[in-house]
Batch of 3 targets.
Target 1
Amino acid sequence: MRLLNHLTNALILACCCLSSWALAAPLPPYPFVTTSGKAEVWLAPDLGELQFDIVAQNSDAAAGLAMVNTVSDQLTALFLAHGVAASDIEAYDFGKKTVPIHQKDDGDPPFASIITRHVRLPVRDLAQWPALMAALLGHDNIESLRGAFDRSDRSKIEGQLAVQAARNARQSATDLALAFGRKPGPAMAVSKGSLERLGAPFGFGSDPSASANGAVRASASAATAPDAPAPSYAVPHALLLTQSVNAVFKLQ
């Protein structure tokens, strides 16, 4: 019986040690400090993009398609006259939908076909933007008009901002560590998104997808102009470009 009690106590102690190790496993086996760094810059856009649908409704689908083609030709001529290259104009996502219509007389057709064509084009000369927007907004066959602005050198600028954000994160780690009589060593993990994206090994959160989606939304809102243009159809004076870096530094 005494031997059995010893074995039972040993088994319980082993389980407790194993449980404690499992709980501590998500944390790194060294003292560490986590910091965030950010860098941003306001720059004038040098690139625009227009997207819209050409829409025609007719009881005869062939007649509706002919109208869409006519409008497409008219707009192509407009774009070319404003310096848009023909190779930059994309027309796709052709669609046809049948809808019921109100019949005034018994002889009227009960249905009509709605023909749509989606168009997308970059505007590389933003001096042409106001005239293009005014023409599209005044056209009866244009729907779902959307405009956006960007920088053609965005990748280069974001790379420079990322370096600045990393330096800012290390400086923050230095300041925080010195307050406790320590100094930061090498970076053991780095993430452009939230620290939750670093995963369980460092014990930061459990839902990286939520943070990632939030980062994407923030990035998109910083780079995209509002759907509704300003009354003057003007190009915005500047866009906010930003980069953030989160890091885990080993303390020394």
Note: The CA atoms of residues 89 and 121 lie 5 Å apart.
Target 2
Amino acid sequence: MIDIQPTIVDAIFNAVKAPNAYPDADVTTGFDMKTAVFPCVVIEEVNNAPLRSTDTDDCAENYTRLVYEVSVYTDNLDKSKSEGRKILNLVDETMQGMKFRRVRTNQPLHISRSVSRQYARWEVVVGKPIIDGDRVIYQMYRR
């Protein structure tokens, strides 16, 4: 399996937590309403499917199609739409900088009286890693 989740999580974490962005936000891979710190940015890999037509005869994976969903939870309903939108725009810039294509965005959904959620999905095709000394390089393609 081609796994770039740590790379994606690190990139979004660094963009959101930057001093001039949302340094107090929580960036995580899971959401728990009871312990959440708001705003909360949740990164989930929702699909990691190999492109079978590019597999080798012994079924070695050469390329995979990845789909990531990022949800932004906010607890200030007066600002939830604007704050969530700004964070999603920041995430979108980060994802598009890594050649992901946004395929869906959803307006705020109120999941409780005080918490709302906005989310977007991105997809990309990634080639198997290339090892260059101590660096790992992934080829990413918009599809």
Note: The CA atoms of residues 10 and 27 lie 10 Å apart.
Target 3
Amino acid sequence: MPDQWIIGYGSLMDRASRTRQAPRAQAAFPVQVAGFSVGWFHQLKATLGQSLSPTFLGAQQLENAVCGGVLYKVTESDLSATDDRETGYRRTPVALDALKLLTGTAVALKRDDRFWIYVSMEDYMGVPSKTFPLVQSYVDLCLNGSLEAAQSYPVTAGHFPSWWIDTIDWQPVRQYGHVCWLNDRAYAYRATFTIPNASSIDTTLAGNSRTTDLWKTASRQYSLPL
């Protein structure tokens, strides 16, 4: 029977986050995926008026595009639970030939295995705004997952967090001169109190040319101007 695998490119990269729906998915492997682009555009618009919701990472199929994520094995029940979690995303098959593992020779995939990625549905797509900003707590979750992957394979994937950032479209985060990214950390000035990898996360964001200016602005923002 073929194995089932999920490619997580956002919060599913984080071990604690993905194992809520897939308890056995402790191990995850850094991977490059061809044919999909990732950016800041996934929004739960239907929740407006009921609760606050940020802009999340979303994926689209796009020829010649490349994105980064982690690959982890799941059961049928894990798949069903993750489908329920990923509101506004459609589970989409990925061909084995589109995957490039960044683990050296440590992991082997079978030709008849099935691979899935969650692609944003059109009704759940939009641009970051005051109503739907990026929030640091979600960025922390995603980047922590990329750091976990790099720490597991330091020789072959030590560069993974910065490379993962490079594969994301950050342009929509700046709208009309405003950076739509809020620092919602519980302890903004002592982030390591609740986020063990906060220093590494901040160093990665500050050291990447795509995010350094955005992050420096966001780290001082606790609300957005009208």
Note: The radius of gyration is 17 Å.
